[in-house]
Amino acid sequence: MAEEPEDRSADAAGADEATGPFSVSREFAIPGAGSVAPPALVVLSGEMTGVAHPLAEGDVILGREPECGVFLGDRTVSRHHAEISVGTERIVLRDLGSLNGTYLNRRRIEGEEILHHGDEVQVGKFRLGFVGR
């Protein structure tokens, strides 16, 4: 008997846990996360799980310095780790020369990367879900 071919339809394309973005429907089962106005980052893992960080237009620094726009207090995060630039046309993520790197959908980034709804950003030990507009 022949095996069924693996489903590679549009519904299954984003379901690969090893390489794809997080599942918006599953990850946003976090209490209160459904009411987040985009764009925003929602902490998906770590002691701050469920905390939402709305992203206003302009530049937002992610880091462990208390004055950062997105404060991630852990030694795996650089003082000024990454930056998100929120514009009217696009939202861009860039690493700021951090020691541990910045990851987008489990891939270390070099230069700028455009964020899309459902993307997963990793900064140090923190996984953050991007809620796009």
List keywords for this structure.
mainly beta, six-stranded antiparallel β-sheet, five-stranded mixed β-sheet, disordered N terminus
- Going across the major beta sheet, what is the strand order? 2-1-11-10-7-8
By DSSP (H or I, 4+ residues per run), the number of helices equals 2
Shape: globular
Structure classification = mainly beta
Distance between the termini: 47 Å
Q: What value does the average pLDDT take? A: 81
Q: Uncertain runs with pLDDT below 50, 5 residues or more?
A: 2-20, 24-32
| Main sheet record | 6 strands, antiparallel
Number of DSSP strand runs: 11
- How big a fraction of the residues is strand? 25-35%
The helix content, as a percent range, equals under 10%
Question: What does this entry look like structurally?
Answer:
The chain is mainly β and 133 residues long. Helices cover 6% and strands 32% of the residues. The protein is built from two helices and eleven strands. The strands form two sheets. Strands 2-1-11-10-7-8 form a six-stranded antiparallel beta sheet, with no helix packed on it. Strand 7 and strand 8 form a beta hairpin.
Short account of what is shown:
By secondary structure, this protein is mostly beta strands. The chain is built from 2 helices and 11 strands; from the N terminus they run H-H-E-E-E-E-E-E-E-E-E-E-E.
Q: How are the elements arranged and paired?
A:
Layout: H1 10-13, H2 24-27, E1 40-43, E2 52-54, E3 58-63, E4 70-71, E5 82-86, E6 91-95, E7 102-104, E8 107-108, E9 112-114, E10 120-123, E11 126-131
Parallel strand pairs: 3-4
Antiparallel strand pairs: 1-2, 1-11, 3-5, 5-6, 6-9, 7-8, 7-10, 10-11
